[in-house]
Amino acid sequence: MRKLTATLATLTLAGLGALVPAASVQAAPTANCDDNYEEAKSGYMYAYRLSYCESYLGSSKEWDENWGNSSRSFQGDDDNRATSLLNKTGKYVAFYRLKDYKGGHICIASDKKYVSSLKSDDVFSNGETADNRISSHKKLASNTCSKFMD
Fold first, then answer.
1. 73, 60 in Cβ contact below 8 A?
2. pTM, entire model
């Protein structure tokens, strides 16, 4: 009789668990580029490790000639890690394949809020794909870019 009671109690609890899911099981909403743009500081550009402006990599109000060194806003393993970009600078921003603004460039226009995912057609002026290959960036006073992100 005790086994039957214990079995019934276990089945009842299991049935309730299936009907009322635990709150911790529900997925939290994810960040996206629109939300991040609204919260971004004016005058800054931002980079993210993942698509849709997720997994913050870093931000910069000025320039950074080497995303892999230990100075300025991008440092260490930030080099060659950006997959999405956000531009709240009000200016054109040029991104470069290599440090010291070399190796080809690709730009985000002053009126483009973000690039949610660097695609295979987002290539530097030297023909290399830009996804996970940015090593330096700088703001431009005017539109002097020959290659833009989609």
1. yes
2. 0.78
